[in-house]
Structure formats: C-alpha cells, structure tokens
Amino acid sequence: MNNQTISPGPATAAAATKPVRKKSVESILFNTFNTLFMIGLVVVTLYPFLNTIVVSLNAGNDTIRGGIYLWPREFTWQNYKAVFASGTIYDAFWISVARTVLSTLLNLGLTTMLAYTLSRREYVFRKPITLIFILTMYFNAGLIPGYFLMKDLNLINSFWVYVIPSMISAFNMIVIRTYIGTIPESLVESARIDGAGDFKIFIRIIFPLCKPVLATIALFVAVGAWNSWFDAFIYTSSRQELSTLQYELMKLLSSSMNANSNPAVAAGAGMTKDSAVNMVTPISIRAAVTVVASVPILLVYPFLQKYFVVGLNVGSVKE
Amino acid sequence: MEETVVKDSAVRKPKKNKKITWAVLKEQRQLIYMSVPLMAYIILFAYVPIWGWTMAFQDYKPARDFSEQKWVGFKHFEFLFKDDSFLQVFRNTLAMSVINIILGFTTAIILALLLNEIRKVFWKRTVQTISYLPHFLSWIIVTGIVATSLASDGIINDILMKLHLIKEPIQWLSEGKYFWGIVGASHVWKEVGWNTIIYLAAMASIDPALYEAADMDGASRYRKMFHVTLPGIKPTIIILLIMQVGHILEAGFEVQYLLGNGLVVDWSQTIDIFVLKYGLAQGNYSLATAAGIFKTVVSVTLLLIANGVAKRLGEERLL
C-alpha cells in the first residue's frame, strides 16, 4: 500500500525484474500481432470505399475489363460530369440537402426546447410528458398504420413527409436533458432573478451552453436524414421531383444488380446515348453517385469524433 | 429517473411537489407553451396510429367507413400462424437476429480489447476514426459495396481464386445458404468500430490500481485482458445484451431488402418485408397489420421480461 507513494521507477524495477523481462518478449509478439490486426482492419474498412472512388474516376468501358483496384487505369471525370449533367441526380442531391438541413435545424431547436422544459424539476407536467416521450422508444404502431396516418395528413407525395414525422427523438431528448442537468442551476436562478422567463432562459442561456451535445445530435440527425431512402421509397415514389439522392442510388443499384450493364439504366440516369456507349457505364455511374452520397458526411464526422464519443456515453447512462 | 434528481435537490425540495393550481399553471405558462404542443405532436405521430391496429381485427377495405368495416376477430392472426410463408419469415428474422447479436457482440468486444492495448495514441485514434467510417454510410451504399465485393468478378472471389481455395467463382448472393452469414458479416463490417465506443469508455473507467496490482503479481498482458479488463466491462456487456433482447425481432429490413433477390427469398425475407409485401404492395392491410402487431407485442413482452431479469440481477433497470 505505502509503495504507491514512492516513485514507481526503482520500486518496480527492483521488485519485479523477472516479470518485466518476460513481459517484454511477450509484449513485442503481442504488439506485432495487434499492429498487423489493426492494419488488416484498416485495409478491410477502407479498401471497398477507396476502390469505389477509383472506379468512379476510371473510364466505364475500361472498368468492365476488370483489374481496377487502387489506381485508375484510364482516368476521367466523365462519370461525375454525367452524374451532375443528369437532371434527376442533380435535383435529388438538392432535395437531400434541403431535407437534411431542415431536419437538423428543427430537431435541434425543438428537441432542446423540450429537453429544457423536462429538465425543470418544478414543472408540474414534467413526469407525464417525459413518460409519453420515453414510451415511444419501445414501441411503434408499425408500417401500415403509419402509412395511413401520412395519408390522412396529406403528407403522401409531399416534401414535408421527410421532415415533419421525425422532428423529435426521445433518445436525443434524453441525451440533451442529461447534459442540461450538468449545467449549474445558479445560472438559471440568477437569470430568473433578473426577470427572465423560461423561454428567454432557454434561448439565451441553456441553448448556447448545449453546443457540445448539440454537435453530436446534429451529426446523428443529419446522418439519419441524409442516409434515409425508405420514406422516399414508400411515400413519394410517384413524384420523381421529390426523389432523394439515396433513393436514386438505390434504383441504380437494384437495376444494375438485376441486369448488369443495361444501357436503359444508364439512360435512365439521364446520360446522353453517346456517353453511355463510350465511357460511362452503370457501374461507373453507380460508383460516382456513391461517392457523392457519402463524401459530405465523411468529411464532417472525424472532426466531431470527440463530441459523439461523449454524447453516446451520456445517452447510455440511463434515465 | 429520480436518482439523479435526488442527489442535488435538497435545496429545491419545496418546489418539487407542487400541486396543479391556476397560479402554478400561470407561473409555468412558458414551460407549458414550450412543451405541450410538442406533446400533442408526439401523440399524433406515435400514439394515434395505434388506432390503426383495429385493421388487424377487420377485413379492412379502404373505401369503407370505420362503422362499415367487417369485424373478423383473430382470423388474420390465425391465418398467420398457419401460413408457411409467415413461419418462414419469422424463422429468418429470428435466425438473422441471433447471428447478428452473437457476431456483433463478440467482434466488438474483441476489437475493443485489442484497441485498448494500443499504446501509441495517434495510431489508436487513427484506427478508431477509420473504423467508424462505415457506420456513417447508408445501407444502400454498404449493400452496394457488399454486392460488388461478392460479385463473380469481385474482390472476394478474386482473392479466393488466387489463393487456389476455390476453382470457380462462388455465386455468393444467389445461394440461400450463404445469405444469413452475408447479412451478419455486413453488419459487422458496418458497425464493429462504432460498437467499440461504449466498451472503450467502460474500459477507460476501470481503476488503474487494478492493473498496477496485476503488474505486481507479474500478470501477463493476456491475463490482464482476461482478468481485469474483461471483468471490468462485464456490467456494460450484460446491460447491452439485455437491451438487445427487446430488439430480437428487429433483424433489420434494409439489408435484407436490398441484398435479397428472387433466388434467395426463402432465406432473406423478414417480418418487415412480409408486412411491406402484403400491406403496401398487395393491399392486404389487415394481414400486414396483424403481422406488425405480432412483432410489436413480442418485442415489448421480451423487453419487459429483460427489464425484470436486469432488476433481479441487481443491474440498473432499463425502463
């Protein structure tokens, strides 16, 4: 016990020379294995994605010959030009951007506002409202009743079906509320003494202080909105102008999976016949759309890493 | 819910048990304005659709009013349990779920243990950041990558051919016997890095004195991993496992829907796909709703049981 107060260097060296030597041989082996394993993991994780990027930068008619791994053989921007020249994909890209931005802003504002009210212990409806939200994490009415609700609310074939049904998530609310619980109560109380009402306290004090947790939630919500395709598939599939990028990608994938290199599919993506014959194939178009659909998020998440690690752990600390 | 409250509420206790009076409502009107509309919103989108469950007990026809619908009791449920195709999707759902849970837990725990042994901070962070990448890709993109890699000229067959393990390319996605494994492996590829976050956080909170004591006893690295680190994260593992029980019928929808094809339907279809097929595609709303209700009821029941077990084991409760 007392040894802990002595400086560790000489004490451990003197007490355990043998184990240290034994450990070092073992450690070298272990570290070598571990490093190799991690390199393997990095390769398995990155290779498919890097390969997709390379295919998207390689001439489509050349890719078909096979053998494209990590470097393009016939470099070209043609696939990207075709993707952005295609009205369908261009429109879908902006629909995806719009729904992602709107969803994120609404989610952040509304969920934080709700979390603030449910963090106020004096609030008389705190418990029932909290319960109503928490129960939604454990059940849902299901696909068919949900579909009929959207129909009754006239949300079918409307842009708003992407945004309105998912403005608040109970899980995110709990994460934010837990975070608000760590803000010193004295800040709220002194504002109240200065005559601020709850709304003002929320806007001026709580919301700005929640920035770290909001960064996490923004990432989660934005990723969810950007990546979702199912709502476009079941609610708005009959209106092409409302299609999202992921849904367009899904259509490209399923058609090329069923019928490899079908020119009609390429034409469907809005290319000219010439380019379809020459350089751009469904496979290369698919690769380019995949890159366009994933790069926005991949550019952002590494910078938010320190936030979402904390956010996840707050969320797992339960109610 | 109250645990966090009790700790620091001594000062504010008088405020806690306020009765609902006009004066209190007036004083808290801003909190009410900020939360009650949101409560109405969640009731509309999460609770009102439950009314649609009545469809499962009717021969629902969209053209008729509610009062004109024909009530048929449990007919659709009886049909489900005698229907071979439902029993098949039920089997598929359970099987894929169990495979996903077993593979998901073991791989994430092993990866977390190995990541935890990396001493160089920069290398560790780099591997972690890269391992999170697939989590941010949509299932559309991931299934696209999986399909490309497993194609007859894809990288997997390429490698197996070059190692002379197989003589001709395997048609991975055309044979039902591979499907469950492919789904499990896809989940691992997408989520393994992300799932380590929570374990690594648990490992970070293990008392360093335990490792020092193990060092004193000359414990090897493996022994420390198995006798200090692993027991240290055991409570986290148990909680997460129990939480998974409630999701046992959530084998996923997207990956099976996107990777499945006509050749493997007997292995690929899950309850969610069944609901989609009978409900929205064929218009048999009653049957589809019944299947959805079955899924929800089983999930909630399992969750309540798991919650009870957690309580018995003296772990934190989930609800």
Break the fold down into its secondary structure elements and pairings.
The complex is a heterodimer of chains A (319) and B (319).
Chain A: H1 8-15, H2 17-56, H3 60-63, H4 78-85, H5 87-119, H6 126-135, H7 143-152, H8 170-180, H9 185-193, H10 198-209, H11 211-227, H12 230-235, H13 245-258, H14 263-268, H15 273-278, H16 282-316
Helix pairs in contact in A: 2-16, 4-16, 5-8, 5-10, 5-11, 5-13, 8-16, 9-10, 11-16, 13-16
Chain B: H1 3-7, H2 13-16, H3 22-27, H4 29-47, E1 58-59, E2 70-71, H5 75-82, H6 84-116, H7 121-132, H8 139-150, H9 155-162, H10 176-204, H11 208-216, H12 221-232, H13 234-245, H14 254-259, H15 265-268, H16 271-281, H17 285-312
Antiparallel strand pairs in B: 1-2
Helix pairs in contact in B: 5-17, 6-10, 7-10, 13-17, 16-17
Report on the structure:
The complex is a heterodimer of chains A (319) and B (319). By secondary structure, chain A is mainly α. Chain A is 72% helix and 0% strand. In chain A, helix 5 packs antiparallel against helix 11 and helix 5 packs across helix 13. The radius of gyration of chain A is 27 Å and the shape is globular. The two termini of chain A are 38 Å apart. Chain B has 319 residues and is an all-alpha fold. Helix content of chain B is 68%, strand content 1%. Chain B is built from 17 helices and two strands. In chain B, strands 1-2 form a two-stranded antiparallel sheet. In chain B, helix 6 runs parallel beside helix 10, helix 13 runs antiparallel to helix 17 and helix 16 runs antiparallel to helix 17. The longest helix of chain B has 33 residues. Classes of the chains: A mainly alpha (319), B mainly alpha (319). Chains A and B meet through helix 2, helix 5, helix 6, helix 7 and helix 10 of A and helix 4, helix 6, helix 7, helix 8 and helix 10 of B.
